[in-house]
């Protein structure tokens, strides 16, 4: 735990250091651009840093480096770990970019208990008394902020890869990062597609299509890709990377299934988003697909009619929550989470990953899938 906390501190510091180097570039263009830096810092200051942790433990799993910046050889170990710290920080910036864009796509007003990026820009527009529509300005500015963060994540990764002692390993890490970026983007498209195309798809395919969204939009980039990027950077061979992939994918699926439950039943004080937010956004999740399977025609029609209405009242949210609970879908999701975690942990047995790292990965598996409502 102490080592993970120390890593998070180093990632925070690396992000802050990187933003400091970008500030003069941005402000030299115009002081009007200062909000881009301020909002970037705001969105990069919080979060649980799961992706950074998985990247680091993927790197550690290869056994080529000691604990980051600690012990009698802290200077040497710190220098050796610099590339993975940059890679972990780059993943966090990439995640922030994805969240900014995701909130725009979902018309979500909040993130981590505060205003989402496009809402911050909307507020700035209103306070400043500018011309035009504040919503249009907020959306356009938010898209650009997400683009800026996306580019910065690439720049920070390149800085880390340039410092890596093994050029071939750095190249493999870059390939994995590029694959992750493509898969997240197409996964996001599949997400918005399912919200609209479900009506024309065979009922028997809705579960598999919802699961496909989970795999490519979230599971791979939340767990599997960070693990593999870190391990590739450390010089892992194909067998080692395959073991991490076999662990990371089912755990990533379990992680997102838990997130889907939180999106419907989560306490706003815990999740940082209004309870039932996914219902207002019309998310066609695995939870919804499973609920529809066990509903009467009338209940299914009511669910479909209300899902995706941004003006749902608290009463209607409560009714939908009860409908989903009564369908048995929550119990089935919990069973799927347990099954996927078990599959992930089984993949570590007999793998080339050391016992010490296996212990850390097991602890992380518990942390990311047992989040409370």
UniProtKB/TrEMBL annotation:
InterPro entries noted in UniProt: Isoprenoid_synthase_dom_sf, Polyprenyl_synt, Polyprenyl_synt_CS
GO MF assignments? metal ion binding; prenyltransferase activity
| Keyword terms of this UniProt record | Magnesium, Metal-binding, Transferase
Q: Which domain of life is it from?
A: Bacteria
> Which Gene3D superfamilies does this chain map to?
Farnesyl Diphosphate Synthase
A GO biological process this protein is involved in? isoprenoid biosynthetic process
* SUPFAM superfamilies hit by this protein: Terpenoid synthases (SSF48576)
Name any cofactors this protein relies on.
Answer: Mg(2+)
Q: Which PANTHER family match?
A: GERANYLGERANYL PYROPHOSPHATE SYNTHASE, SHORT CHAIN ISOPRENYL DIPHOSPHATE SYNTHASE
Q: What protein family is recorded? A: Belongs to the FPP/GGPP synthase family.
* Protein name as catalogued: Polyprenyl synthetase family protein
* Species of the source: Cryobacterium cheniae
